[in-house]
Fold this protein.
Amino acid sequence: MSFSTDWEAKCNRCGLCCHEKVIVEKEVLFDLDSYCEYYDPKTHHCTIYLERLDKSNRCKRVTWAKAMFASYLPDECAYVQWARSLHLRFAIRRRIRFIGGNRGDTSDEDSISLSCGTQFSNTVTP
Ligand code: SF4
């Protein structure tokens, strides 16, 4: 397995980075009703995963630097967990809040099982 494949394989397909999000003070608001056109909300997977970076100019690869510093990535993100396991996570911790969607519960901070190993470029820079 190549380094690149290994890195891609870390993604746990939570799909949160495929949704619109914005930082508001100490929170990150994820809009569960607004997501990439290639994201399938039923399967929670990217429908063009292998070609996503070519076909969607909004889709950006999650890099080591983002894993370490991007405060909009949620704790359940596998790249965040990787960085944290190596004591390389330096981003401030933000509360996650979900807007919209049908998650079957009312908690703001539960992790959701929603995929792609990428992120939208319209996220707010931390
Ligand atoms: S890269 Fe995106 S889909 Fe993969 S674990 Fe992180 S937030 Fe979830």
Q: What stands out?
A: Residues 11-17, 62, 73, 77-79, 115-117 surround iron/sulfur cluster (CB under 6 Å). Strands lie at 19-24, 27-35, 39-40, 45-46, 59-61, 95-99, 118-120. Residues 3-110 form one domain. The radius of gyration is 14 Å.
